[in-house]
Write a structure and sequence with these properties.
heterodimer, A: 308 residues, MetI-like fold, 2 strands, 1% strand, globular, B: 282 residues, mainly alpha
């Protein structure tokens, strides 16, 4: 018996060691980002986050244009993808027959599997000309009195990056929101309908509020993905390290400046500044991801029945 | 218009709009597929699949080295990531206590959410800097770090789907726990675990951000794990950004190859999964 228990002990230990690898990797990752960004942290301190000079040849580094670009493109993405995604999730969970709903969900989830460089490839050759020739002139013509929609239409820029990010985030929003909506107990809908609500009123006043945590969770997951997205954004945002009020102007995000400059950066200060913006990106996505998971977990298991 | 008619009108309009949202989102997939098939199919040729890239600006050549390089690095990532993730998943499903299990699960989700470019920085600091060279090893390592948490969580999930009565039956027959896991739980969940692994490998195969400054790029055939190595996604990026029409043509061809690979593995994985977990009921 002792040898059997011994074998179990060995199996337990081996599995434990491999499971602990994620702990080790995460701790090492934070540690490496922290010590390798030391020169930049020592030289610029917290002003690194709020200054906008990014001049590798003169050793001046401020991350504000990248933080601005990252936040701005992600906000544009959410403004487009949240109504579209939640709307589609409502249709798939509440209206569509089950088979239609499942095949549409399958197709939408396939979108999430498309590599981001492919979105970038398509965006460069189709979305950028489209934005430059039609969408941006139109926005400028109708909303040009707002500074956001003024300035020359380049095609590549914050707005185009936001649009491609919207396309990359809505599969997440739809798939998880739909699950959350399906978790809402059937009695909730029936009670609302019995009180004389139309189907839309029942959906928007009863079902959606009931599933709101899961929906918010899906939005945060989409946001986390948008913030850290690299390739597609790098290919269309125009790569200009300064601040612009216009959404049409070329900009930069944290991920894209790392992608563009890291391999070519030669001096230590430049490298450590790039690693520090990486650390900032890491911290932002960790917080957003943690929030998303709390929300998704909180919503699971609240419902008892499933809508047919 | 009376109140009821108004409410019914709102109802119809809003419900129609949700349908429009669905059509818009689903159609994106067909737009993506359509563009790639049309542009890719007219661009792809035998040379693309078998030849090295031509010097900048010259017409012709291919990306055979990038296809081999991708296979090399994805293979390396699978070699490291799949066993580690698999055994970690077994720990989470079969051994873990409440507290440490929670910590590991949390860290796996956290690692899964780390932007791939940051994973690239990490691989650069721990492999490229000490080796003083960009290498296939660093690229494969970066990809394996993305594969570990995906595999771990999916393995755990499918093991938890195995009914406890199966384990109890084997334990009641006197089998030690490790034998129950190896001969009962894992085989019962194998189909699901494999599906998760295939999807994970397909996902990292399409990654380019963590390879940009770990594997870098290369115009020639891969010559060793310690050398800079080309990968298909990175080639698509470089070629699409370059100002040459023939490079663009090859980027489309490479995009088609990559997308076909990803979609076929996804469909295959779903096909395996849809045939159900191989547990006999009754």
């Amino acid at each position: 018996m002792a040898s059997l228990r011994g074998a179990d002990g060995v199996a337990h230990l081996v599995a434990l060691i491999f499971a602990s690898s994620v702990l080790l990797v995460t701790v090492c990752l934070v540690w490496e980002l922290w010590i390798n960004s030391a020169p930049s942290r020592a030289k610029f301190g917290l002003s690194f986050l709020v200054t906008q000079d990014w001049d590798p040849s003169n050793g001046q580094f401020g991350a504000l244009p990248f933080i601005y670009g990252t936040v701005l493109t992600s906000v544009i993405a959410l403004i487009i993808s949240v109504p579209l995604g939640v709307g589609a999730a409502i249709f798939l969970a509440e209206l569509a027959p089950r088979r239609l709903s499942e095949s549409c969900t399958f197709l939408i989830e396939l979108l999430a599997a498309v590599p981001s460089v492919i979105y970038g490839l398509i965006a460069i050759f189709t979305l950028v000309p489209l934005m430059r020739q039609y969408v941006e002139p139109f926005l400028k013509h109708t909303l040009g009195f707002i500074p956001l929609f003024s300035g020359p239409a380049f095609g590549g820029g914050y707005l185009t990056a936001g649009v491609i990010l919207a396309i990359m985030t809505f599969p997440f929003i739809i798939s998880i929101s739909r699950e959350a909506l399906l978790e809402v107990p059937r009695d909730q809908r029936e009670a609302a309908l019995a009180l004389g609500a139309t189907q839309w009123e029942s959906t928007i006043q009863v079902v959606v509020p009931f599933a709101r945590l899961g929906i918010f969770g899906s939005i945060f997951l989409g946001l986390a993905r948008a913030l850290g997205e690299t390739m597609a954004v790098t290919m269309v945002i125009g790569n200009d390290a300064s601040l612009h009020a216009s959404l049409f102007a070329p900009g930069y995000t944290i991920a894209s400046v790392i992608a563009n400059e890291f391999a070519e950066a030669s001096d230590d200060l430049h490298l450590s500044a790039l690693i520090e913006v990486g650390l900032v990106l890491f911290l932002i996505t960790i917080v957003i991801n943690a929030l998303a998971r709390v929300l998704v977990v909180a919503t699971a298991g609240r419902g008892t029945g499933r809508a047919s | 218009m009376n109140r009821l008619a108004y409410r019914k009108l709102v109802n119809t309009i809003m419900l129609t709009l949700t349908g429009v949202c669905t059509i818009l989102t689903v159609s994106v997939l067909f737009i993506v597929l359509g563009y790639l098939v049309v542009n890719g199919a007219t661009s792809i040729d035998w040379a693309f699949l078998t030849q090295l890239p031509k010097p900048t600006g010259e017409v012709g050549g291919g990306m055979a080295n990038a296809i081999v390089g991708s296979a090399l690095m994805v293979g390396l990532a699978a070699l490291i990531g799949l066993p580690v993730g698999f055994l970690g998943g077994i720990y989470l499903a079969e051994f873990s206590g409440k507290t440490y299990g929670f910590v590991v699960r949390y860290m796996a989700d956290l690692l899964n959410g780390v932007p791939s470019i940051v994973i690239g920085i990490f691989a650069w600091t721990v492999i490229v800097v000490p080796m003083h060279s960009f290498s296939a090893l660093a690229g494969g390592f970066a990809l394996s770090l993305m594969l570990i948490p995906i595999t771990m969580r999916s393995t755990e999930q499918f093991l938890l789907g195995v009914p406890n009565s199966l384990r109890e039956g084997a334990l009641a027959l006197g089998a030690p726990k490790w034998k129950v896991i190896a001969t009962v739980a894992v085989p019962a969940a194998m189909r699901g675990i494999l599906t998760g692994m295939i999807l994970g490998v397909a996902r990292v195969a399409g990654e380019s951000a963590p390879l940009l400054f770990t594997a870098l790029n290369n115009e020639f055939w891969p010559s060793g794990l310690n050398q800079p190595t080309a990968a298909l996604p990175v080639m698509i990026y470089k070629h699409a950004m370059a100002p040459f029409a023939d490079y663009h043509r090859q980027a489309w061809a490479a995009g088609l190859v990559l997308l076909a690979m990803v979609l076929i593995t996804n469909l295959a994985a779903r096909f395996i999964a849809s045939r159900g977990i191989a547990v006999q009921k009754g």
